[in-house]
TrEMBL record:
<keyword id="KW-0732">Signal</keyword>
<dbReference type="Pfam" id="PF00092">
    <property type="entry name" value="VWA"/>
</dbReference>
<dbReference type="InterPro" id="IPR010600">
    <property type="entry name" value="ITI_HC_C"/>
</dbReference>
<dbReference type="InterPro" id="IPR002035">
    <property type="entry name" value="VWF_A"/>
</dbReference>
<dbReference type="GO" id="GO:0030212">
    <property type="term" value="P:hyaluronan metabolic process"/>
</dbReference>
<protein>
    <submittedName>
        <fullName>Inter-alpha-trypsin inhibitor heavy chain 5</fullName>
    </submittedName>
</protein>
<dbReference type="GO" id="GO:0004867">
    <property type="term" value="F:serine-type endopeptidase inhibitor activity"/>
</dbReference>
<dbReference type="InterPro" id="IPR050934">
    <property type="entry name" value="ITIH"/>
</dbReference>
<comment type="similarity">
    <text>Belongs to the ITIH family.</text>
</comment>
<keyword id="KW-0325">Glycoprotein</keyword>
<dbReference type="InterPro" id="IPR036465">
    <property type="entry name" value="vWFA_dom_sf"/>
</dbReference>
<feature type="domain" description="VWFA">
    <location>
        <begin position="81"/>
        <end position="264"/>
    </location>
</feature>
<dbReference type="GO" id="GO:0005576">
    <property type="term" value="C:extracellular region"/>
</dbReference>
<keyword id="KW-0722">Serine protease inhibitor</keyword>
<keyword id="KW-0964">Secreted</keyword>
<dbReference type="Pfam" id="PF06668">
    <property type="entry name" value="ITI_HC_C"/>
</dbReference>
<keyword id="KW-0646">Protease inhibitor</keyword>
Length: 728
């Protein structure tokens, strides 16, 4: 990970003056590959501060909208009363628990002498380190680390019991210490699963927690992996003045926990209330905040009743470690004017049609976020529907991507006849999304690229899926050939190589898993990542995993695989069907379908993985190569079995199941011994008959296995091609 103190990463361009900053970070695929094999995947964090002349904050006004930034500094930290609640159920075994323990060791050393803390481990039993909060001393930190070190994973997950015990510890300490408003009570709660022991009903857990906390305990939750009940954690935090974070299966849980804790490690104020005269301000965003942490910022936006107002009365009340504070003042408001920014582009301003009011946009963004939070917390269906409609209307009006809206990219591409509006269904939220553009009103792009949404996609048999099993369909001769490739974890396979002609390359990276018991293999391998590189008409690339799709065609998009969405630009269309498949269409003549295989409770030999299917290969050239590409636009035929005449070899359905007869397949001039088999494709939904080439398809494919290994996911080189001699 790059240290931000060492300067910005390559390709970063920063332009700024006294009132404006413009930051561009646009690494090429090559630059990303040099940093990490799979490219850059992470958060782009900008750390900045502004000059503040008043302790009550800074207010900006533009065309009747205002924004108030409140970020006091040089305040003494509030004491923290914190309980760390760690899931130690059986599912945390291995790396997750080890990383979490290491992170907690670091966090314990960061506690201040005025803080109080305790630790709870929970599975089907609630294991409390101490039955009261402990002051921070070298001895207590050492003892806490020893307790964490000896935690072992076992049993189920009693989320309700763990939360109730943690809240009781905090309430008991506050009631007997008299510290009250001069401290902040926090729970840092980490789990990787769903409630399976004790109270398991989500609404009852939420009600129990809300009644016990009574707004006096803030709960910060972290969900690890794909099996966690993230919606429950999100509601627990929203209803109890906290925040939530999700750590994906492949991410480092420890570093995520430390980063999350850094956001809340230094509380400076509690019970913050910011008031404006009702006669001056309407439709203000949230003005009550339970806590203010060092390094954060409170932002409020709203509408001014009088656009010509030159002063705005502001009152701030809050508590810090010493006293209850009240700030009152009339803040001069400085309307911003249209002008030029540091890039030479017109600054927002004016009332003309097409002008962008960035303060109005910020107000709409904050309002939409608050509507979404209210929607998530509400259990009243009519109210939820009203909140959904308001959030959706704002999002569409101001072009925000939300769980209630979908996204389409506009591009100057020809209109495609016979294609209709795209439709999808949000897997996370339920309502049908509204298709929208992410371009601003000032652009004049071409017509939208639209295509019907197809929940069940018709695709060919030519594919690689499973362990990995390859299937090649020869429709002219009505033959299907199959073979296996036993690679090594980390190998990157060239599946389709046509960079020089059509400009398309497809690479697939393998992930390993133990073999099933009593199997003939030592290990299994699956496709973990599919990388599709395109250099015509515009250079772009896609990186697809079971959890997300990265599309980089100049503007980088990250699309979660658990929500349906369609994006398209410059002859490239990507359609995600939630937790099912990803369809990639290139210039209307090349189409790939990537099936997403997810396991709710994977066995040790199972991994979330991908299947790659070629739906349309018309746009690929006759020079196309790769493990699958070399067989496109080719034909095959069967000859007699070397040991004797065969029977109806072009119709293997008439042959007996099991160890079928052997034959010789002729393809591309190769004579390949094959045996008849049956194989399941399309996620096991269809069984096909095929002629199987043994020994890693040694006599079927050009060259050797090593010739199909790419050096990195973005490698477009091709070591073999049409007319090249085979290496036998």
């Amino acid at each position: 990970m790059r240290n931000y103190d060492s300067g910005p990463p390559p390709s970063t361009v920063i332009n700024q003056n006294e009132t404006f900053a413009n930051i561009i970070f646009k690494p090429t695929v090559v630059q990303q590959a040099r940093i990490a094999q799979n490219g850059i995947l992470g958060d782009f964090i900008i750390r900045y501060d502004v000059n503040r002349e008043q302790s009550i904050g800074d207010i900006q006004v533009l065309n009747g909208y205002f924004v108030h930034y409140f970020a006091p500094k040089d305040l003494p930290p509030l004491p923290k009363n914190v309980v760390f609640v760690l899931d130690s159920s059986a599912s945390m075994v291995g790396t997750k628990l080890r990383q979490t323990k290491d992170a907690l060791f670091t966090i314990l050393h960061d506690l201040r002498p005025q803080d109080r803390f305790s630790i709870i481990g929970f599975s089907n039993r609630i294991k409390v380190w101490k039955d009261h909060l402990i002051s921070v001393t070298p001895d207590s930190i050492r003892d806490g680390k020893v307790y964490i070190h000896h935690m072992s994973p076992t049993g189920g997950t009693d989320i309700n019991g763990a939360l109730q015990r943690a809240i009781r510890l905090l309430n008991k300490y506050v009631a007997h210490s008299g510290i009250g408003d001069r401290s902040v009570s926090l729970i840092v709660f980490l789990t990787d699963g769903k409630p399976t022991v004790g109270e398991t009903h989500t609404l009852k857990i939420l009600n129990n927690t809300r009644e016990a906390a009574r707004g006096q305990v803030c709960i910060f939750t972290i969900g690890i992996g794909n099996d966690v009940d993230f919606r429950l954690l999100e509601k627990l935090s929203l209803e109890n003045c906290g925040l939530t974070r999700r750590v994906h299966e492949e991410e480092d849980a420890g570093s995520q926990l430390i980063g999350f804790y850094d956001e809340i490690r230094t509380p400076l104020l509690s019970d913050i209330r910011i008031d404006y005269p009702p006669s001056s301000v309407v439709q203000a965003t949230k003005t009550l905040f339970p806590n203010y942490f060092n390094g954060s910022e409170i932002i409020i936006a709203g509408k001014l009743v009088d656009r010509k107002l030159d002063h705005l009365h502001v009152e701030v009340t809050a508590s810090n470690s010493k006293k209850f504070i009240i700030l009152k003042t009339d803040v001069p408001v400085r309307p911003q004017k249209a002008g030029k920014d540091v890039t030479g582009s017109p600054r927002p301003g004016g009332d003309g049609e097409g002008d962008t009011n960035h303060i109005e946009r910020l107000w709409s963004y904050l309002t939409t976020k608050e509507l979404l939070s209210s929607w998530l917390q509400s259990d009243d269906e009519p109210e939820k529907e009203r909140l959904r409609q308001r959030a959706q209307a704002l999002a569409v009006s101001y072009r925000f991507l939300t769980p209630f809206t979908s996204m389409k990219l506009r591009g100057p591409v020809p209109r495609m006849d016979g294609l209709e509006e795209a439709h999808g269904m949000s897997a996370a939220m339920g309502p049908e999304p509204v298709v929208q553009s992410v371009r601003g009103a000032g652009t004049q792009p071409g017509p939208l690229l639209k295509k019907p949404y197809q929940p069940r996609i018709k695709i060919s048999k030519t594919s690689v899926d499973g362990d990995p099993h390859f299937v090649v369909d020869f429709p002219l001769s009505r033959l299907t050939v199959c073979f296996n490739i036993d690679g090594q974890p980390g190998d990157i396979l060239r599946l389709v190589s046509d960079h020089r002609d059509s400009g398309v390359t497809v690479n697939g990276e393998l992930i390993g898993a133990p073999a099933p018991p009593n199997g003939h293999k030592k290990q299994r391998t699956y496709l973990r990542t599919i990388t599709i590189l395109i250099n015509k008409p515009e250079r772009s690339y896609l990186e697809i995993t079971p959890s997300r799709v990265i599309l980089d065609g100049g503007d980088r998009l990250v699309l979660p695989c658990n929500q349906s969405v369609v994006v398209g630009s410059w002859g490239l269309e990507v359609s995600v069907s939630a937790n099912a498949n990803v369809t990639v269409t290139i210039q209307g003549s090349i189409a790939f379908v990537i099936l997403i295989h997810l396991y709710k409770k994977p066995a040790p030999f199972q991994r979330h993985h991908l299947g790659f299917y070629i739906a349309n290969s018309e746009g690929l050239s006759s020079n196309c190569h790769g493990l699958l590409g070399q067989f496109l636009n080719q034909d095959a035929r069967l000859t007699e079995d070397p040991a004797g005449p065969s029977q109806n070899l072009t119709h293997p359905l008439l042959l007996q199941v099991g160890e079928g007869p052997e034959a010789v397949l002729t393809v591309k001039g190769h004579q390949v011994p094959v045996v008849w088999k049956q194989r399941k494709i399309y996620n096991g939904e269809e069984q096909i008959d095929c002629w199987f080439a043994r020994n890693n398809a040694a006599k079927l494919i050009d060259g050797e296995y090593k010739d199909y290994l790419a050096s990195h996911p973005f490698d477009t080189g091709m070591t073999l091609g049409r007319g090249m001699s085979r290496e036998l």
